[in-house]
Amino acid sequence: MMRMRARLLVLQVLVLALLVVLAGRLWQVQVVRGQEFVQRATETRTRTVLVPAVRGQILDASGRPLVRNKTALVVSVDRTRLARTPDGGAGVLAKLSKVLGRPVQDLQRRITPCAPKVPKPCWTGSPYQPVPLDEKVSTREALQILERQEEFPGVTAEVHSVREYPGGRAGAQMLGYLQPVTEAELEKREGLKASFSGVDLAGRDGLEYVYDDELRGKSGLRRVQVDRMGKALGVEEQTAPVAGDTIVTSIDSRVQAVVEKALAHAMKAQPSADGAAGVVLDVRTGRVVALASAPGYDPAIWAGGISARGYQWLLSDKSGKPLVSRAINGQFAPGSTFKISSVSAMLRAGYPLNGTYDCPGSYMVGDRAFNNFRGQGLGTMSLHTALVKSCDTIFYRAAYEQYLKDGGRNPKKHPKEIFANTARAFGFGKPTGIDLPGESSGRIPDRAWKKDLWARTSAISCKRSRTGYPEEKDAARAAFLKRLALENCTEGFLLRPGDSANFSIGQGDVLVTPVQLARAYMALVGDGRLRSPRIAWAQVRPDGTVVKTFDVPVVGKLPLSEKERLYIKGALSDVASDGTAAGAFAGFPMDRVRVGGKTGTAEVWGKKDTSWFASFAPTDHPQFVVVVMVSQGGMGAETAAPAVREIYEGIYGIKGPAALPGGRPVSRLPRFAPDGTVIRE
Amino acid sequence: MIDRAVTLRRPSLVRRAMGTDSIVRRFDGLMLVAVLGLSVLGTLLVWSSTRTWAPGATGLVKKHLLNQVIGVILCMVVASVDHRAMRAYAPLVFLVSLAGLGLVITPLGATINGSHSWILLGGGFAVQPSEFAKVGLLLIIAMLLAQPAEGSDRPRNLDVVLALVAACVTMGLVMLQPDLGTALVLAVITAGGLVISGVRKRWIILLATVAGAGIFAVFHFQMLEPYQIARFTAFLDPSVDPRGVGYNSTQSLIAIGSGQLLGKGLLGGGQTTGRFVPEQHTDFIFTVAGEEFGFVGSLAVVVLLGVVLLRALKIARECEDRFGTLVAGTIVCWLAFQAFVNIGMTIGIMPITGLPLPFVSYGGTSTFANLIAVGLLQAIRVRRRVFD
């Protein structure tokens, strides 16, 4: 028994030791590290769900919605709950695909978090946030899901607000679209990280992008206590979302519709046309009344997440790249519409305003003859007539003379480059600063640009000048290309005499966007000041109080005296009645609304001409500037000018009801009721 | 004289129970208080952890209480039997428990919660013969090793071998279910019995070597189920797969740790209410104590278990016959091991094993087995003197 007692003693020591170990570990876990586990418990026990704020509307000048919200039943999937089902959610998705009538692979893709090698459409939001799968479900479909929750764990159908576009395709590129926020965007917008929820969509283009902060509002927060299966047990904490502000624009949806229609007609009338843009500016305020680009698309395509095919279609050549706004991104040679800059350059170079100029059929620039349009000589004339009849040789001559003054092929150290610099003063060559993202700057091909281009391309040109173009089937074309390559290789850095002549009539390498041209004309026929056009007019709180109005900044001044400016304006005033656009405006009641402007026909190598018409009305006290550009549209007078005429007819109600009665744009902000609705007057 | 007549009436049951010579007086009251405390705590914890989902909210608590009442009756019955007489019944008890284990393998056996260790009795009741096997095995081992060799205080080698055979058969049947946790308890009971009985150190070394080789073989030849290996890996590093196998240990640590010093109060545990810890009314019941009663409460559980164990050790020491000492000693080994592994796994110092916490966890058969063990201890204490 002694031995047993001794061994029992050992056992007793062992038992005591185990008890002490347990007590010690408990002390460590509960008392020493307790706070840490309290925190982790809160993390596991609660789910923070961000409640997205209702996004603000975008209204036109009289308060008509351009973009509004509608409530829609949205089916979302909670990935974490899906993952806990035995088959990882495959069964649920299969059932869901039947209800929604969408392929199961598509659903699977949509809920997969985005990563470098994950194909689109993937989920860009937080992994804990339910992923919206379908924003267009019917009540019946939603009920099928809600009534059989046991068959659809982790799937919910809730009422959300989604974007709606009452104007359909009108101004789609200008309005922009929403997409889920990407990681990269979150990083970039450091300060806003807190206000983003995983389900929040962010503006990706157009006004939705530029005024994203104003429109978005602040998402609310709901901390829900959940059980292990993610079932909500109760709400621990709640902050209500703050709805986003409304953006009132100066766009007039009626005029916008008129412009869209005119562009569509122009495109139809010219089967070769592959794109068009229309800009209507309010000369007195510098605000945008309409901004359109064709071809367009229905922005409803973005709702519920765009499919990969849909996105490709928006960017494809086949569809004409409807996502791209030709109004701010279409860069084309302006043709004769550019002469307002060239005539100003002549004045700055010292050519007299009231002098007479010879307009021969052709003019020798260096060793090459540059012809007037159709080679016709028009005799001596004033600058006024030169603009009305669109004489080219006068400008060739002036540009060549200035080119020689700058030293010609052996330029002076600081060439004046009057034509290029005047063009810059008209705002060409840099973005207008309109409140839209990704605006193109156009191009002023001066001596520096030439040098820069040569530095980038000379290696290829020189190689091609030796190897030629064996892949080119047409022998004559191949020979021409080879000659061009040799020329570019050996003296591509030089501004050639022909370049300066082409520039003066808006041909060659010079490129402008429709918006640039419109605001140059606006400055010319307005007060001589160059403005940065604005689409947004005011930011209004959901309760109707105006937070702020957006000013139209003045960014420059035309290099013209008042007398010179009015002279040019006067010349342009005769174009539609007596000049190049007289045909297009035949029968237009000029006594009611006198329209002035300038046609432009720009040659594009290998393509049909770009058709332009830059206009303003009424001529004595201009209210509107209207610019239409039709890519591959042919002559300015043939395609663009009739489209502009159609726009004026719509605005003033020549043939039907007036879009803007009295030809006056809305001058007062719409009034809002305290609930944020517009008071109709 | 007539009026001084003596009436010979037997005193009432209560009076007899309270009398100076009553066996009730000789019970170890402290141990009973500790067991009662653990049972009451267990009932509260079962209620807290099952009220959100059990039928009628209190369905499982009622069943648990019924189990405890049955267990107390079994305890009393066992306590009233002379343990020395029990020595004679040991082989029978052992064989019956083996038969129970055998039944599990037959089509009568049922699988509950992934473990094929049940026999359904109907009416919603089921027994787990492996729990009774613990009692059966410890009795047969104590019986075999209680008889010392001639002129020695060590058991005979033949008895040692027989004890090992009995242990191997029982463990083999349990492993067929398979129930690794119970098999380990049986191994501890066997090892405890051998050590306490005073076998030579060479036996101990030999068995330890064999056990070591066995463990090595199990790992080397991958005889464990993948989930068992995963549990072990998760024990070594719970962060390996916090949502998978490491989930249980991570969640139970969070539940216990978040209880801090004083706990969140009964029914106040969010982790418990949210059922983040699995099996929280059975194997993981300690997490409920940790979360809702805090360090104070969980320490109380440890202390109460310690009281039971130390009193049992006292009974073992004070018992004057080898059989009683052996029975009491192996019970200590059993309960100590089971309690340590159970609590240890919830606080991350032991791998996850499916063992209930003695006296606290929900579970009929284990409650019966634990209370039968208490009955045995009391029986031994009552008749600790050889000539009682």
From TrEMBL, chain A:
Pfam families cross-referenced by the UniProt entry: PBP_dimer, Transpeptidase
Bilayer topology term: Single-pass membrane protein
Subcellular location: Cell membrane; Membrane
GO cellular component: plasma membrane
Single Gene Ontology MF annotation: peptidoglycan L,D-transpeptidase activity
Occurrences of domain Penicillin-binding protein transpeptidase (ranges): 278-649
Single Gene Ontology BP annotation: cell wall organization
The entry's keywords: Cell inner membrane, Cell membrane, Cell shape, Cell wall biogenesis/degradation, Hydrolase, Membrane, Peptidoglycan synthesis, Protease, Transmembrane, Transmembrane helix
Penicillin-binding protein dimerisation domain residues: 51-234
Family: Belongs to the transpeptidase family.
PANTHER family: PEPTIDOGLYCAN D,D-TRANSPEPTIDASE (PTHR30627), PEPTIDOGLYCAN D,D-TRANSPEPTIDASE MRDA (PTHR30627:SF2)
NCBIfam families hit by this protein: pbp2_mrdA (TIGR03423)
Protein name according to UniProt: Penicillin-binding protein 2
Organism classification: Bacteria, Bacillati, Actinomycetota, Actinomycetes, Streptosporangiales
UniProtKB/TrEMBL annotation, chain B:
Pathway listed: Cell wall biogenesis; peptidoglycan biosynthesis
Transmembrane regions: 27-45, 65-81, 88-112, 118-145, 157-174, 180-196, 203-223, 293-313, 325-353, 359-380
Keywords: Cell membrane, Cell shape, Cell wall biogenesis/degradation, Glycosyltransferase, Membrane, Peptidoglycan synthesis, Transferase, Transmembrane, Transmembrane helix
Catalytic activity: [GlcNAc-(1->4)-Mur2Ac(oyl-L-Ala-gamma-D-Glu-L-Lys-D-Ala-D-Ala)](n)-di-trans,octa-cis-undecaprenyl diphosphate + beta-D-GlcNAc-(1->4)-Mur2Ac(oyl-L-Ala-gamma-D-Glu-L-Lys-D-Ala-D-Ala)-di-trans,octa-cis-undecaprenyl diphosphate = [GlcNAc-(1->4)-Mur2Ac(oyl-L-Ala-gamma-D-Glu-L-Lys-D-Ala-D-Ala)](n+1)-di-trans,octa-cis-undecaprenyl diphosphate + di-trans,octa-cis-undecaprenyl diphosphate + H(+)
GO CC annotations on file: cell division site; plasma membrane
PROSITE patterns recorded: FTSW_RODA_SPOVE
Molecular function GO labels: lipid-linked peptidoglycan transporter activity; peptidoglycan glycosyltransferase activity
Location in or out of the cell: Cell membrane; Membrane
Main subcellular localisation: membrane
EC number(s) given by UniProt: 2.4.99.28
One biological process term in Gene Ontology: peptidoglycan biosynthetic process
Membrane topology of this protein: Multi-pass membrane protein
PANTHER family named in the record: CELL CYCLE PROTEIN
Described purpose of this protein according to its UniProt entry: Peptidoglycan polymerase that is essential for cell wall elongation.
Similarity annotation: Belongs to the SEDS family. MrdB/RodA subfamily.
NCBIfam families: rodA_shape
Protein name: Peptidoglycan glycosyltransferase RodA
Species for this entry: Nonomuraea pusilla
Lineage: Bacteria, Bacillati, Actinomycetota, Actinomycetes, Streptosporangiales
Originating gene: rodA
